[in-house]
Amino acid sequence: MSETVEFASNGSTASGHLAVPPAGSGPGVIVIQEWWGLNPQIKNTTDMLATNGLVALAPDLYHGELAGHDEMDKAGELMTNLPPDRAARDMSGAVDYLAGHAAVTGDGIGVIGFCMGGMLAFILAAQRGDRIKAAVPFYGFPQGDAALDWTGLTAAVRGHMADPDDFFTPDAARALESELQGIGKDVQLTFHQAGHGFMNEENPMGAYDAALAAEIWPETIDFLRTTLS
Fold it and tell me: At what angle do helices 84-99 and 116-127 cross, to 10 degrees?
């Protein structure tokens, strides 16, 4: 069962796509969109996770705005103009909403994200280490001049990166992995010989790898269910 829900976001409200397993309960997982927005593909991914026993919530970080798969310039503009403080509030509100949802069981909340969402999955895990216990970022991570405080990161991180990737380079990903492992964080990144966007079945970047996705999804779902149970 899936529906649009509203939840508190630090004095305001936000919304998202919530999907509950057929059994009616399961571990909770936040799903973070790509730069296109909360589009049908992300909603379908959220629903798929629910059919596999997870209570999944995808917050609408763009507040209703979308870019089509043929509108890369618009997607880039939406991502660039996303207010970081609002995104942080909305993601944190989504975490608290799931943590208090009657259908959510287990210990802690998970997060999974793609591209921009992969980067935000790392950030959310660092900012909400009180709740986030498992993180699966795909081909995205924080980079640039702004240093992130990783002291709050308590989640087990099992990321999947593309190689080659011009958006989030493998060398930068390996450097981050080494940095986080060096301060005692449970972070493992797997590098795949595939292009950026290899998990997106709608193939907007021309990189979808059906065989690779079929291999990774069961592993990812098992990791989330096992870690959060």
Answer: 70
Please, what's the largest Cα pairwise distance for the chain?
45
- Average pLDDT in the chain: 97
pTM of the full structure: 0.98
| Distance in angstroms (rounded) separating the CA atoms of residues 58 and 24 | 18
Whether the Cβ atoms of residue 124 and residue 132 lie closer than 8 Å to each other: yes
Q: How far from chain centre, in Å, is Cα 228? A: 15
Residue 149 is part of which domain span? 2-228
Per-residue pLDDT tens over the stretch 182-201: 999 999 999 999 999 999 99
Structure tokens at 165: 């990737």
Starting at the edge strand found earlier in the chain, the sheet holding 187-192 runs 2-9, 12-19, 55-59, 26-32, 104-114, 132-138, 156-162, 187-192
Could you give the number of structural domains in the chain?
1
Spell out a b/e string for 199-226, using b for 16 or more CB atoms within 10 Å of the CB, else e. bbeeebbebbbeebeeebeeebbebbbe
| Tokens of residue 119, six digits | 């980067």
From the list 180, 160, 179, the residue with the least C-alpha distance to 170 is 160
3-state secondary structure of 70: coil
Confidence of residue 205 (pLDDT cuts 50, 70, 90): very high
Query: Tell me, what CATH number does 32's domain have?
Result: 3.40.50.1820
Average pLDDT value for residue range 118-139: 98
pLDDT digits (tens, 9 = 90+) for 68-95: 999 999 999 999 999 999 999 999 999 9
Closest among 200, 178, 198 to 48, alpha carbons compared? 200
